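Protocol step 4 of 5: obtain the predicted structure for the target chain.
Materials: sequence only (see below). No template structures provided, no constraints applied. The aim of this step is simply to have a reference model before the mutagenesis design in step 5. Sequence pasted as it appears in the construct record:
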Amino acid sequence: MSLRRPLIALLCVAGLAGLGVFAWRANGLLASSPAVAEATDAAAAPAAAASQPAVLVEAATVEARTLIDDVAAVGTLVSNQSVVLHPEVAGRVAAIRFRDGGMVKKGDVLIELDSAVQSAELQQARAELTLAEANARRVEDLFAQKFVSSSARDEAASRLEVARAALALKRAHLGRTRVRAPFDGIVGIRKVSVGDYVKDSDALINIEDIATLKLDFRLPEIYLSRLRPGQALEVTSDVTPGEAFPATIDAIDPMVDAEGRAVLLRARLDNARGHLRPGVFARVKVLVEQRDGVLLVPEAALIPAPGQTQYLYRVEDGHAHRIEVQTGVRRATEVEIVRGIKPGDRIVIAGQIKLRDGAPVSVARPVAASD
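Step 4 output (C-alpha cells):
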C-alpha cells in the first residue's frame, strides 16, 4: 500500500506534463494558420487605428464656379487716325497757330505760309470776274435789242465762266498756304519755326487721334475658329500698372501668316482719359469662352505621381482618402479638376505630405476653396 501511492502520484505528474506539451503545440499551430493570422490582424486593426494620432491638416470645400477661358498675347497700340502734315505748296512759314502737344479741332489752321502773292492773284481774279459780269449783262441787253448776234452773247457768257473759274483757282491757291487739321486730335512737336522756307515734301507736324486706340496683335491659327469681331478682351500695359482696359476685336485679317502660322487681329479700345499712347507695348487677354460649374482647387492640394496620374486627399468621417483626379486648365494658383471630386467635397490643401490613405486627420480650420 505504501508503494502504490508514490506510483499514482508519479503517473499524475506525467499526465499533467503531457497535457501541457499538447496544449503548447496546439496553440503554436493555431497561431501559424493564415486564416487565424488574418482574423487576428483584423481584430487588432481598429485598436491600432484608434491608437494612431490624427494628422493636423488644412482643408477646403470644393465649390462650382464660373471660369472664363482666355488666351494671352502681346501687341502694339496704334492711333485711331494718324497723319504727318506736309505743305501743298512751297513757301515761307508766316505763323504757327498751335501749341506743341495741344488739342486741335478738325479744320483749325495750324500753320500759315506767306500768302502775299496768292492774295494779290485772288484780288486780281475778283476784279476780272467783276468786269466779266458787267460785260455779260451789257451784251445780254444789246442782244435783247437785237444789236448784237447770238455768238457775241455766247462769247461774253464764256468769258464770264472763265473769270469765275479763275477766281476759284486763285482761292484754292490761297487756301493751300494754310495747313489745317484734318480731324480732331493731338498735335506732336513741330519741326519748323516762323521764317523757315519749306517745300511741299517737308514734314511740318504730326497729328494723332488717340481718343480711341487700335491694338494690333497675333494669335496662333488654332484659335481662328473661336475668334469673331466684337469679341471681348482685356488690355494691360506697364505704363498703367494694375489697370485693365476693356476692348473688342474690330477686325480679323483674312490671311494667316504662312511662316508663323498666326492670324493678325485688330482690336479697338476707348482712351478718352488719354492714359495710353500710340506705340506703347500692351498685353492682351482674349476672352475665348465662359464655362459654368467648373471645379477649381488650390494647386497645392495636388499630389504628383509617376506618369500623368495625380491625386489629392478627400476628408470623410475624420479620415483622409486618396483620390485619383483628372486635371484641366490652370489659372494662377488654382487648377481645374475634371474628374474625381464633386461640389461640397472637403479636400486637404496643406499637410498631406504626412498622410496615407485612410489616416485619421484633424482639420485646422475650414476655408472656402477660393480662399
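Step 4 remarks: The first helix runs from residue 4 to 32. The helical segments are 4-32, 34-51, 116-144, 150-175.
Proceed to step 5.
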